[in-house]
Design goal:
This protein is about 45% helix and about 15% strand. With about 575 residues, the protein is of the alpha/beta class. A 4-stranded parallel beta sheet has the order 2-1-3-4, sandwiched between helices. The protein has a 4-stranded mixed beta sheet with strand order 11-15-16-17. Strand 8 (about 250) and strand 9 (about 260) form a beta hairpin. About 25% of the residues are buried.
Length: about 575
């Protein structure tokens, strides 16, 4: 005989009740009450319905409904069987993440916890659909919040904390007189050839407070010493040029706090929103140096002004400075140093040393710059196409400006269409048609912009003002070579051994036939200029002559090379 045992019915006054309240900015227009008002409403509901044994009231103010980690403490109370009933205003207070909401309700059912809503009776069958609607509302609100934030970013409103070197006043940045000199010093040290770690060491030795120490925020971790990463973050921060950059990252999902970095073309950049600490030319010079190899000479603390400029003519690997015991210090192909000499049975591995002394580089650069200033024919030939380069730069800049204007206009139109769709002001079929058309046009212009910017990189940071070039050269001839000066004038210096230079290199670097033959037979150096397509070629024969005589006689060189066409 089957005997059924009725479940004991507990009267409301005996039930151990947990009241749960939540308010959040995410709820947008629904957030019309203070959380204390919600609490008082639920306490009144309990009194009216006989729930007099209130054991706890949990209030989560300004907490997102998509984040269910807020329930960790309550889950422990459930598993410990310390409550019988959980009372909320409605299902949206529980949360706006359907999967997590269903999991939580399942946990309540597993432990026999009663779920009560003040607004209406909890319906187990209807709850999955209700939680889905709650999630959709959260997603819509997330989109509206993103749109609103992007509008503020495009207006130049500062939505993050101030950058090191600045103080935040309202939504604007003003220069901080205490830390601005440190920022300038970091940029100057890098331009002198010091790397991230070396600059950090200098700042630590001088007892300079780290950015987090200076802010002294008790809620944030504080770094006790400068490290290379701190220095790098400052050097790549375009905000120091007076440009506001926003929209760098975005949430992976409206349900999660995780963020991801957005492509650079999607960042919002607004120039001249605040006072610049670093001028744009200095910032670009540092940026270019960072894109090249940045290193110290091993076992020294002396910054190497040629780091990142020297390349192997055979494998295009960078050359780096090494100290040798029984031989003069020199630069050597990094691939050769890693893999050894190239062998016939494995031509892809290894290279030759391409060894060259720093003094040799300094000597032929000094003579090159001296001739550039003093030889009329050489100078005229070297500078004659600068006007053409400037014209090309202006054409690129005007085209980029026009495309960016068109892109902003299309994005504004898309945003307007999207908002009209949310407000049901346009029918679905028209929204789909219009949004697809706008998306396609936006995609086309973004592709054109990317291609054009890639092409423009060759001209963007090139110094094409003759007076400025002369000023840089004179400064280096008087005070010695600097990393910034060399990077402003020279793109790279290529070291060739004999029988390495190719016809492709000859065309690419605009090398004269006679010099090409000479460098093929003897090896040599090609200095690739940043601002003209006319290169400076030194064969190994002329390097030897220079070392013997300590002078490079350009008139003698032109006379001996009868087929000389102006390239030296």
């Amino acid at each position: 005989m089957n005997i059924s045992v009725a479940k004991k019915i507990i009267p409301n006054y005996e039930k151990r009740v947990l009241i749960y309240c939540r308010e959040s900015r995410d709820d947008n227009s629904e957030n019309y009450e203070r959380i204390e008002t919600q609490r008082d409403l639920l306490v009144k509901f309990c009194n009216q319905n006989g729930y007099t044994n209130i054991v706890n009231i949990v209030m989560h103010d300004d907490m997102s409904g998509t984040d269910f980690s807020r329930f960790d403490e309550i889950k422990e109370m459930i598993k410990n069987k310390s409550i019988d009933t959980m009372i909320l205003k409605d299902s949206s207070r529980l949360g706006r993440n359907q999967i997590e909401a269903l999991k939580f309700v399942e946990l309540l059912e597993e432990y026999g916890i009663e779920l009560v809503f003040e607004g209406r009776k909890y319906d187990k069958r209807f709850f999955p659909l209700e939680s889905w609607f709650n999630e959709q509302r959260a997603e819509d609100d997330s989109i509206k919040i993103k749109t609103n934030l992007r509008h503020k970013m495009e207006e130049g409103v500062l939505l993050i904390r101030s950058h090191y070197g600045y103080i935040k006043e309202g939504n604007k940045l003003i220069v901080d007189p205490e830390t601005t000199p440190i920022v300038k010093r970091i940029f100057n040290l890098y331009l002198q050839g010091y790397g991230y770690k070396a600059i950090a060491t200098i700042l630590n030795n001088d007892n300079i407070s780290t950015p987090s120490q200076y802010r002294n925020n008790p809620n944030k971790p504080i770094a006790e010493v400068w490290i290379g990463q701190h220095v790098r973050r400052i050097l790549i921060n375009e905000a120091y040029t007076g440009c506001m950059i926003s929209g760098i990252s975005e949430k992976v999902s409206f349900k999660k706090k995780n963020t991801r970095r957005k492509p650079k073309e999607e960042w919002i950049k607004i120039p001249n929103t605040h006072e610049a600490i670093i001028d744009i030319n200095t910032f670009n010079a540092v940026k270019e140096m960072m894109e090249k190899k940045k290193s110290f000479a091993p076992k020294t603390k002396i910054p190497c002004v040629f780091a990142g400029l020297l390349h192997c003519g055979k494998c295009d690997s960078p050359l780096f400075f090494i100290k040798l015991k029984d031989k003069p210090d020199c630069f050597m192909c990094s691939k050769y140093h890693r893999e050894g000499r190239q062998k016939e049975d494995n031509p892809k591995k290894g290279c030759s040393s391409h060894r060259i002394q720093e003094k040799e580089i300094k000597d032929f650069l000094k003579n090159h710059f001296t001739n550039l200033l003093n030889s009329k024919d050489y100078r005229d030939y070297f500078y004659k196409n600068l006007n053409d380069i400037n014209s090309i730069k202006r054409n690129y800049e005007n085209t980029l400006k026009r495309l960016e204007s068109n892109l902003n206009r299309l994005k504004s139109q898309y945003e307007k269409v999207y908002n009209e769709h949310l407000e049901d002001e346009i029918p679905e079929f028209l929204y789909k048609k219009k949004s697809k058309e706008l998306k396609d046009n936006i995609s086309i212009i973004e592709k054109q912009l990317k291609e054009l910017k890639d092409e423009y990189k060759d001209f963007e940071n090139a110094e094409t003002n003759v007076n400025k070039i002369d000023e840089l050269i004179n400064e280096m001839l008087e005070k010695g070579f600097t990393k910034r000066g060399l990077n402003s004038i020279i793109d790279k210096i290529i070291i060739y051994d004999e029988n390495e230079i190719t016809l492709e290199d000859k065309e690419k670097y605009n090398i004269d036939d006679v010099l090409f033959k000479n460098i093929t037979n003897n090896g040599g150096v090609v200095i690739v200029s940043k601002f003209t397509n006319i290169q400076y070629v030194f064969t190994n024969w002329w390097i030897a002559y220079l070392i013997d005589t300590n002078k490079f006689d350009i008139d003698k060189f032109i006379k001996e090379v009868i087929e000389y066409k102006g390239v030296s």
